[in-house]
Amino acid sequence: MRLGSGTFAACCVAIEVLGVAVFLRGFFPAPVRSSARAEHRAEPPAPEPSAGSSSNWTKLPPPLFSKVVIVLIDALRDDFVFGSKGVKFMPYTTYLVEKGASHSFVAEAKPPTVTMPRIKERETLLPNLLVLCGDHGMSETGSHGASSTEEVNTPLVLISSVFERKPGDMRHPKRVQQTDLAATLAIGLGLPIPKDSVGSLIFPVVEGKPMRDQLRFLHLNTVQLSKLLQENVPSYEKDPGFEQFKVSEKLHGNWIKLYLEENNSEVLFNLGTKVLRQYLDALKTLSLSLSTQVAQYDIYSMMVGTAVVLEVLTLLLLSIPQALHRKAELDVPLSSPVISLLFYLMFLVLSAIHVIVCTSAKSSCYFCGLPWLAACGVMALISALLCAIVSVLTKMFIRGSLPSKNPAPPNSGWSELDLLMVFGTVGHVVSLGASSFVEEEHQTWYFLVNTLCLALSQEIYRSYFLRDDGEPQCCFRVEQGFAGATPALQDRTGYDTREQDRVHVSSSLSEVLRGHEKWMVLASPWLILACCRLLRSLNQTGVQWAHRPDLGHWLTSSDHKAELSVLAALSLLVTFMLVQRGCSPVSKAALALGLLGVYCYRAAIGNVLFPWQQDNRDISKGIIEARFVYIFVLGILFTGTKDLLKSQVIAADFKIKTVGLWEIYSGLVLLAALLFRPHNLPVLAFSLLIQTVMTKFIWKPLRHDAAEITVMHYWFGQAFFYFQGNSNNIATVDISAGFVGLDTYMEIPAMFLTAFGTYAGPVLWASHLVHFLSSETSSGSALSHACFCYALIGSIPVSTYIILVTSLRYHLFIWSVFSPKLLYEGVHLLITAAVCAFFTTMDQTSLTKS
Predict the structure, then answer these.
(1) Is the pTM for the entire model greater than 0.85?
(2) Transmembrane region positions (predicted)?
(3) I need a labelling partner for 718 at 20 to 30 A (CA). Which of 169, 204, 358, 461 fits?
């Protein structure tokens, strides 16, 4: 079966989306969470157990502390406080602990919990207890986040006059879990234990209280954990911790009966001590069961999703030689008898594995819960992909063993720009294995874009000052570049080979480049670098420098609303000037009115001002103004779609298709202008400016092929994703974009608007790529090559990242750093699939026309 490389790539990405969805469903475990909602009235505390006699103690015990101060030190290792290192590095803390009443522990940060961020919520409570702790430790080399002893053991020192003065050995403190601190502070402050807490009371904190108070504290904690266990574990009655809790509660009732009878004999004390030990054992077992539930992954579903994703990536990598060939077609034979036999064997093996896993699984599994028809479909898909890979490898081996009839030309090697793109992509993928690089990924893309500009500058200067033989020259050799393109270049790009048109275009370009525009060509990379540097100052993102003031914060302050208004108006004007050049007259008018409506919308909600407007006017939701813009967005998109259909079905005019693509691009630009916050409108204007400069002064004169142009568009799209102020933190998603023009919450429109507002940078650069390749060539191979390259460069990061998060699933920062990035990668792959589908549609249009 023969497929075009664009169609093949679009199908691969669609299958990869399915694999990523299955992986995500298995990777994110079911949360251990109480079914009680915050809006419901707080439940009264559990009454004190009794056996025969009735107890009137149904309230929370009085608090142990009135105020709490938490000193949370980043990467504080336990040996920095305890032992000889503590005396050396933290002498005052050691002196304070030895002098005053305190309790010292080694708190283990058990991955993948995120206890300390929860503890920070209580920092506003007032102090009488001093808590010194660390969020995590670090290794001898300074790294942190892994599961080594140095990285998970942190000190926990509780200092208070409430505690009795006891001489202790700080060199061998007891071990507790970081999750225990939430329950301990709640009990110490007389507050209800958080319903979702999986920790247990640190008993030495309350051991100075009377026996009845101690048992009451332990009972409240075990009741809370047992309820959480009942709501999250179906077979909770068989859990050892739940059985121990029932025994403890029964013994506690007997002790209360003796206590109320005013029996102060030794029997009461011994029974109380037994109940204490029973409660502590039950707490330990319950906490361990719930903690295990938190860190329980659906490994089988993850493996199925990973298998699909890796097979797709392998197939894409093996198909590169055929996909980037001049014909842009691939032969994917699936009907061979040998391949068919392998398919059935693999299908039977996978079915057997599926039955064994699903019948022996002790915990819930998403993939096992699917209908058998759906599960068999996925297994058949995995088998088919494996057969395709085997077929491609077999053909490559056969071709490699035979002498080549068409040896590669000498000039078919990779250029310096190609090497930069390959090593840049590989370097970015490798960097995703470090949490710091994930948090600061924008720095990676800024570096790659800047390096790309320098490489383009070097290529421009070399093309201008030197001939191919190394001799100096005074102008671009555009005539030779366009009229005498090498066969290798034609195979890679698919540019039109009509010589008369090439000579005409090249001659006119040569005349233009001999004038003032040759200086624009020389200065274009530096202009792009300057634009990128300005955009970096607009929004500080990431983690390390997110707190630093930036131009965006300065503009959004109420004191600089006039400056923001001027900047927003100029940005909208530049946007119109750069976009209108390729639109039809009707679309130009709609674009102008739409951009005017964008400014009116921002003025209506109080972000910007009109020149005649005072700052103290009433503020509205801007529903009418936003819907006014939506009308023009839909109108422009409809006009562009109509032109595309007309170019495919009715007319044979190549210009109609080009105009239609540009109008669709213009509609997306107008939608982005509406959704962007006012201080981000310069990001949109600079994006259009850079696209215009690169189109006119870089891509055309330097004759880059479709693959190189695609990678450049992808890189700049990723950079502009972060120029908008986005990061790999979910908190930076601008949710307000999903409510523009909506008076009530509507799920589907809100999701679409939020996704487009977040990924506007990559989407606009991909749309510009389709228009550029369609306008520069009438052959469909360029679009096919671009679609394949876009799918490949989008698949490599998500496939590699899936392997990384699987291996790092017990990393301390798996939920705070790696998991949000995984969600971003999943959504980005979905958008890549939509882009590839659009590529394929335009490719089929070109094939139909040809």
Answers:
(1) no
(2) 299-318, 338-357, 369-398, 562-579, 591-610, 622-639, 750-770, 782-810, 822-842
(3) 461
